[in-house]
Every structure is written in structure tokens, then in C-alpha cells.
Design a protein that fits this description.
By secondary structure, the chain is of the alpha/beta class. It has two domains: 129 residues, Rossmann fold (3-Layer(aba) Sandwich), CATH 3.40.50.620; 137 residues, Rossmann fold (3-Layer(aba) Sandwich). It is 42% helix and 15% strand. It has 15 helices and eleven strands. The strands form four sheets. A five-stranded parallel sheet has the order 9-8-7-10-11. Strands 1-2 form a two-stranded parallel sheet. It has a two-stranded parallel ribbon with strand order 3-4. Helix 13 links the parallel strand 10 and strand 11. The two termini are 22 Å apart. One of its GO terms (molecular function) is ethanolamine-phosphate cytidylyltransferase activity. It catalyses: phosphoethanolamine + CTP + H(+) = CDP-ethanolamine + diphosphate. InterPro entries: CCT (IPR041723), Cyt_trans-like (IPR004821), Ect1/PCYT2 (IPR044608), Rossmann-like_a/b/a_fold (IPR014729).
């Protein structure tokens, strides 16, 4: 599953050299070594290829760095170094997946992005499923506040005794700057605007952003607040808080700028302020009931004749991702229990690693 922690790892890796080649592990290899993947290989290829720090992508990469694959990297791709984070990457037998690269002196380490992991995000979704079935409305609101604030505590999973980590992400201005583009629109740029939740950033988001960017010179993306999403999509949304969602969108190569906490209604003043030429929306989106109303968020750009609906290339929404977790609940629960143990060990023994 792709998230902003992966994007930050790719950013750090790219800073170590002149070109970044990323191996995307096959579905079978992930299943054998970590448990069932949340997103299939074709979607993960779209996601990784859209990260602005990535120059090339290798599909069906092995989970462990084998001698044959390492030689292929050195000879066919002219790789100088193989990169991984400071968190251990172990095979089921307990051995280091990067041992050969380390022994060859061709390994470099980057700093893990704290506060997020696939295990953490899957845990949030599993927790939502449990809370929805056993809790009242007050507890729903409490859970939402924990997601939105980026704080939380260890929640005990009654029945198994294992905990699920709520977001410990600590947003800093430096991280936002690292993900941001330094360029602004030119005086004659055609600025395209698209907005949404962009929760659990996925291949469907990437593809609609790609199409939107192709309609102009500068793509401005509005990211709705946690409170707006919760009020329109239910108390367990969003899964990722505003700053987490903003980083995921900023990492996308098709995005030039984001509005962090964009308004639900697009006003004429906002269109003028940002010099927006075109407002677009995909045909695959959640909560489109407002389209039946006379007054809805896109009323102003529609009246101005600058609104366009784009045919979404992929039929994927955030709910699609959540349904994948829910439909295979037991498998992901077992995966998380195993991974939580290794993450707990990492956090208990971790030391400061220089990096950014």
C-alpha cells in the first residue's frame, strides 16, 4: 500500500544520487513475505510511477535482494547503490533481505518516516470496523478527533489483546517544504483546479490528476478539511488526517500546488484569487448527491462556464480500498498482529538516525 512515508523514502533516496530506479515487488512475493497486498501490482505501478522523485520503475521485483537480481541492477540499470530505510526488512526465516547488498558494499540507508506505516493505516481501518459494530455515536466522534488531530493512544483490541496504533504523525513546516514545488504559475498560465478528500491516496486519484493536469499549465488541488469530510462521508472518515493527505498529493508529479483545507464551496472570489481557468471533477467520486441539488459546491464555476466533468480512468474510490480490507478482515488482522510485534520491537530499540 502506497502512502506518504513511502514517498518520503523515495525523496530521500533520490537525493542520494542523480537517478532513482524503484523496484515494485510482485503480489505473490508480498503475500509470501508480508501478507496480502492491499493494492495489486498494476495499481502500485501507477502510484510509484507518479511520484515526482522517481525516474524509472521495475515491475515484479523480488522481496529479497538475490544475487541474480543484484547483478541485473548493476549491469542492466547501472545501479550504484541499493537503498532501504533504517527499519529492518526481514524474511520469514529471520534473515536480512538486504544482506547481499550490504556485503557487496553497495547499500545505503535512509531514515524511516515516523508516524505512518501500512500496518498503521490498515489498523486504522480495522479499528473503524470494530468501532462501528460496538460503539455509540460519541465514541465515533472521539475516534474521528484522534484521526484528525494526528494524535492518539494505543487502542486495545478486545479479544486478541493486540493494539492498533493511531496516527503518530507530527507535521512540520520543513516536511511540507520538502514536498512542495518551488515554482508558481506564470502570468499567462492556464490554471486548472480540482478538489476532494484524497483519502488513502490511490491509483484512481493519480489518474484523474494526470488528466486534469493535461488540460492546463498548472494544477491546483484543493484538499478538504477533516471536519468537512467527516460531515459529508461519515464519522469514521477521513482515515488519513489533513496533513497526511496533503503530503500524498504533493508528492504526485502531476500536482503543482495544493490548498491545505480548501473550502467545500468554490466561490467567485476564490476563482479570482487563484486565477483559476477551469474547475474539474471526475465521474468516479464519493458523495455526489449534491449534483441533484440546485445549489452545490460547483454552482459558481458552472454558472461561469468554466466547469468540466472528466471521465475517471479507474473505478476506484477510498471506499474501494476500505472494502478490500473489510472483505479480507481476518487475513489482515493476522498480518497486523505479526507486523505490530516487529514495529513495537523497532520503536523500543530505535536510535536517532541522521536524515530528513
Amino acid at each position: 500500500m502506497m502512502h506518504y512515508g513511502h514517498c518520503n523514502a523515495l525523496r530521500q533516496a533520490r537525493a542520494l544520487g542523480d537517478q532513482l530506479v524503484v523496484g515494485v515487488v510482485s503480489d505473490d512475493e508480498i503475500t509470501a513475505n508480508k501478507g496480502p497486498p492491499v493494492t495489486p501490482l498494476n495499481e502500485r505501478m501507477v502510484m510509484v510511477g507518479a511520484v515526482k522523485w522517481v525516474d524509472d520503475v521495475i515491475p515484479d521485483a523480488p522481496y529479497a535482494i538475490t544475487e541474480d537480481f543484484m547483478n541485473k541492477l548493476f549491469t542492466e540499470y547501472n545501479i550504484d547503490y541499493i537503498i532501504h530505510g533504517d527499519d529492518p526488512c526481514l524474511l520469514p526465516d529471520g534473515t536480512d533481505a538486504y544482506a547481499l547488498a550490504k556485503n557487496a558494499g553497495r547499500y545505503k540507508q535512509i531514515k524511516r518516516t515516523e508516524g505512518v506505516s501500512t500496518t498503521d493505516i490498515v489498523g486504522r481501518m480495522l479499528l473503524c470496523v470494530r468501532e462501528r459494530s460496538v460503539s455509540d455515536r460519541h465514541n465515533h466522534s472521539s475516534l474521528q478527533r484522534q484521526f484528525s488531530s494526528g494524535h492518539g493512544q494505543k487502542i486495545d483490541d478486545s479479544g486478541s489483546g493486540s493494539g492498533t496504533r493511531i496516527s503518530h504523525f507530527l507535521p512540520t513546516s520543513r516536511r511540507i517544504v520538502q514536498f512542495s514545488n518551488s515554482r508558481g504559475p506564470g502570468p499567462d498560465s492556464r490554471i486548472v483546479y480540482i478538489d476532494g478528500a484524497f483519502d488513502l491516496f490511490h491509483a484512481g486519484h493519480v489518474e484523474i490528476l494526470r488528466l486534469a493536469r493535461g488540460l492546463g499549465d498548472f494544477l491546483l488541488v484543493g484538499i478538504h478539511t477533516d471536519q468537512t469530510i467527516s460531515s459529508t462521508r461519515g464519522p469514521h472518515r477521513p482515515i488519513m488526517n489533513l496533513h497526511e493527505r496533503s503530503l500524498s498529493v504533493l508528492a504526485c508529479r502531476y500536482v503543482d500546488e495544493v490548498i491545505i483545507g480548501a473550502p467545500w464551496d468554490i466561490s467567485k472570489d476564490m476563482i479570482t484569487t487563484f486565477n483559476i481557468s477551469l474547475v474539474v471533477q471526475g465521474t468516479i467520486a464519493e458523495n455526489m448527491d449534491f449534483a441533484k441539488d440546485e445549489s452545490h459546491p460547483y454552482a459558481v464555476p458552472m454558472d461561469m462556464g468554466i466547469f468540466r466533468r472528466l471521465e475517471s480512468p479507474l473505478d476506484i474510490t477510498t471506499s474501494t480500498i476500505i472494502r478490500r480490507i473489510v472483505s479480507n478482515h481476518e487475513a489482515y488482522q493476522k498480518r497486523n498482529e505479526k507486523k505490530e510485534a516487529s514495529e513495537k520491537k523497532y520503536y523500543e530499540s530505535k536510535n536517532f538516525v541522521n536524515g530528513e
